[in-house]
Amino acid sequence: MIEISAKLIGGPVYLPGENVGCYITFMNPPLPNDIRSRSHRDDLEVLAWATAQIHCQCSTNGKVPLPSKTPYLPEEKVVSNSETSFAPCQGDKGRIVLSTTPKILFCDLRLSPGESKSFFYSQSLPLEALPSYRGQLVKYSYKITIGSQRVNGIVKLLRVPLRVLDISGVPEINLCEDSEDLSPSNPFLESTTKDQEQDPTIQLLQNITARRNPNFYNITNSKGKVARFCLFKQAYKLGEDIIGTFDFSDATVPCVQFTVTLQSEETIGEEYKAETKQQRAIASFSNCHEVCLSMKQCLLNLPIPLHATPTFSTRLVSLRWRLHFEFVTTQPDSVFQLPTDSSTWQGPGFLTIETMIWDLPIQIYPSLPTPEPQTNTKYSIIL
Prior knowledge:
Helices cover 5% and strands 45% of the residues. It contains three helices and 21 strands. The strands form four sheets. Strands 2, 4, 5, 6, 8, 9 and 10 form a seven-stranded mixed sheet that branches. Strands 13, 15, 16, 18, 19 and 20 form a six-stranded mixed sheet that branches. Strands 7-3-1-21 form a four-stranded antiparallel sheet, with no helix packed on it. The longest helix has 11 residues, at 200-210. The radius of gyration is 28 Å and the shape is elongated. The protein starts with a strand and ends with a strand. This is RAB6A-GEF complex partner protein 2.
């Protein structure tokens, strides 16, 4: 019996172009004491070979066609006997849209009882790597697939999941050498970023998401002004809070309540729209609901979950983010005043209301993965 275990170095989250590191250990467990005392033979375990590869699997919900083959992708090969050949996509639905060159870890490995041997697998993610995404219509998933085989045995696969964040949405502009870094800093810690060369794209990403640029929106309907909304910035990172304010002081149409929902819009690419009936899917995340009748101002605070996928676009699917507003208004001539005496005020039992909807697009970028290990999870199989 051989136990194969794998552990990622530096956490499970990576950016395109980064190196993925993984320690892979092959161990032959020690024999029990009773068996060891009666055994007079050498219980060696022999493995013929082991290899590792990173690949991205694309799958759909069945209503969206899979992308056709493209010249820059590796051709799919028909495996005559999947039990004795290395097939990283064996048992998975979908199609491989990106794969790295397989690396051989060893050939003819012999392990005595209680002996183990570790190998370090390192591979750079291609710059054109698609982001990890688990949507309603399309799914992109990354895995390190480790395959190994005994002599005259079947191939067993160990899969280690990865998460890849896309930064292709960052505008391409040149950074000046004296450009100011707008990312938050601690004045009491020694700064080492100036001594090290920082990726211009990452520096630009930090500056874009740190810069505040308040935008004001007058929300009106056919009867007048409902509210004035202020959004402090348009670009956010995963894990940040979306902060905004509502001002009802100059409103001519009373607003009874409002709901703001953070939503993602998944849209199928133009060349695939004709082949599917389901062309769009909306997913809702955090929301904020407030009863704002007779209020002058109100605060909006929406957290962006870390597990969400930033804005991206491929030939097959594109993902966009927006704030979905729902306002419930009543008649402008409705007056709600508290009594001047000490009697209890009784609210109206009936209101004539109208509902208005508004969508405001926003941009969500990835948060930078930390260099420290983010998990101690170990993946293992028995061969």
